[in-house]
Amino acid sequence: MNPATALATVLVDELLRCGMTDAVLAPGSRSAPLALALHEAAVAGRARLHVRIDERSASFLALGLAKRSGRPVAVVCTSGTAAANFHPAVIEAHQAGVPLVVLTADRPPELRDTGSNQTIDQIKLYGTAARWSCEIGVPENRPGMVAYWRSVVSRAWGLAQAPDPGPVHLNVAFREPLIPDGDESWCEPLDGDATGAWTKVRAATPGSVLHVPATRRGVLVVGDGAVNVKRYVAAASMAGWPVLSEPSGNARYGDHALSAYHFLLGVPEFVERHRPEVVVTLGKPGLSRPLLSLLRRAEEHIVLSPNLARWPDPVRSATQVAQDVEIPVLSGGDDGWLRSWRAADRAAAAAVDAVLDASPEVSEPRLARDLAAALPAGSLLFSAASMPIRDLEQVMRPRRGIRVMTNRGASGIDGLVSTAVGAALAHSGRSYALLGDLAFLHDRNGLVLGPEERRPDLAIVVVNNRGGGIFSLLPQAALDGPFERVFGTPHQVDLEHVAAAHGLPYRRLESAEELPKAITGSGLRIVEARTDRDANAVLHAAMRKAAHKAVRDLL
């Protein structure tokens, strides 16, 4: 099956599974895959297809259908000015709150801005008149595409409806061939969820709560920016579920919180025996690839999101999205599920600790582990969004009394000193920051404070491996020739001189045992921990090997 036919087949099928009963088509060439898929659905009796010879009439027909029925109606056109002719109806739908799913076929990127026929800029063509716009991208014959396509369509369907109904725009680029080629094969099943939409958006009504299926084989995942954490951690604990919390999820406390799940989920034998029936996600997870793989394997993945216009679903596995959920408690019975997770977590964490404690030298993961453990109650820990937060995720042991923050919205390296200073000024207790050297140098101006400005009580711990440490753990490290210059990006900046230039106290951490003493003090101050990027890569490999062995020994 060619990619254009596969994409159109899936998009139309997902719209039907979401509940579409009517679609309107204005004929054209580039939209042929969608036209054929809609025609097939109409012949099969799955939907009513309405065809009009011009786009303006087609779009207003769709508007009338949707306005009267209260259900989203899909309207399809080819590329170029055809799409522009939808604009008046899209504006009316926006102003009147009428749900429309606008599908504009488009030329692929290589034909744009070349003078190619019927090719204009269609990305976000309708501006603020669309509740949501998405450039789906040219389809490719590779695994993962079906989940992406269905997730996008079900999200669009949900966003077109209550509580704020209106038009959504999906721009769909097709490469030729545009008609079926007679080959029905594809690299993965094209099927969706037989029970309905790929992701079901549960619109909130007063007092409405999504009741999670009752099961002991559940997991609570807490990512960055989670809200109402204590409530859901308590519910998961009562249900006998393990809690897998990223550091900035601030749910890594209590008996049910695991700290070595990154390593557990890297052992295929463990994963096979611990496939959850339900996963409930709070916040935005994304630090651990093994954890994201767990979300794909869950039979039911429920995303809890305060905002039904936007929710995190990085692996396109969400089956339901809701603003409020209730996790049921099963009385009596076996707690073997939780005990098995906790036993493996203890074994993996102990194995990792043994590797970290084998040397008195300062290492990046040990620094992260020991810093999180050493902070006084009531402290704020701000972490860089690249390697430091990942180190914390892998080695930070459960504890109460600290708040962890990081800029994981876009996970950028910029502005971290200034963000840490701002957070410290707003925090009522002691504050600390764990930054890499490049992140620190990127925002040196954040250290410049005027004579009448408030000074934060903030110790900035800088991991100085003289470059971009995270790249030594990525495939780029195998590129011996260009690696050091274009990825490692070494520098020769003396951080003690940087501190002196800004009149700040400076201390260099000489050994791991010195950490508690090094971070004492008050005001804005710098603590430097020098490490080696190559040695850090070797240490991470040793941690992983030891943890995986410890888990396998339990199985």
TrEMBL record:
Gene name, Swiss-Prot/TrEMBL: menD
Q: Which coenzymes or cofactors are required?
A: Mg(2+); Mn(2+); thiamine diphosphate
The job of this chain, per UniProt, is described as: Catalyzes the thiamine diphosphate-dependent decarboxylation of 2-oxoglutarate and the subsequent addition of the resulting succinic semialdehyde-thiamine pyrophosphate anion to isochorismate to yield 2-succinyl-5-enolpyruvyl-6-hydroxy-3-cyclohexene-1-carboxylate (SEPHCHC).
Domain spans labelled Thiamine pyrophosphate enzyme TPP-binding: 394-519
Q: What InterPro entries does this protein's entry cite?
A: MenaQ_synth_MenD, THDP-binding, Thiamin_PyroP_enz_TPP-bd_dom, TPP_enzyme_TPP-bd
- What does the record say about how the cofactor binds? Binds 1 thiamine pyrophosphate per subunit.
- Which key words are in the record? Magnesium, Manganese, Menaquinone biosynthesis, Metal-binding, Thiamine pyrophosphate, Transferase
> For the Thiamine pyrophosphate enzyme N-terminal TPP-binding domain, which residue ranges apply?
7-124
| Name used for this protein in its record | 2-succinyl-5-enolpyruvyl-6-hydroxy-3-cyclohexene-1-carboxylate synthase
Enzyme Commission no: 2.2.1.9
The UniProt subunit note reads as follows: Homodimer.
Q: What pathway or pathways are given for this protein in its record?
A: Quinol/quinone metabolism; 1,4-dihydroxy-2-naphthoate biosynthesis; 1,4-dihydroxy-2-naphthoate from chorismate: step 2/7; Quinol/quinone metabolism; menaquinone biosynthesis
The reaction(s) annotated as catalysed by this protein in its Swiss-Prot or TrEMBL entry are: isochorismate + 2-oxoglutarate + H(+) = 5-enolpyruvoyl-6-hydroxy-2-succinyl-cyclohex-3-ene-1-carboxylate + CO2
Q: State the family it belongs to.
A: Belongs to the TPP enzyme family. MenD subfamily.
Q: What Gene3D superfamilies does this protein map onto?
A: 3.40.50.970, TPP-binding domain
Name the NCBIfam families for this protein: menD
Question: Which SUPFAM superfamilies does the record match to this protein?
Answer: Thiamin diphosphate-binding fold (THDP-binding) (SSF52518)
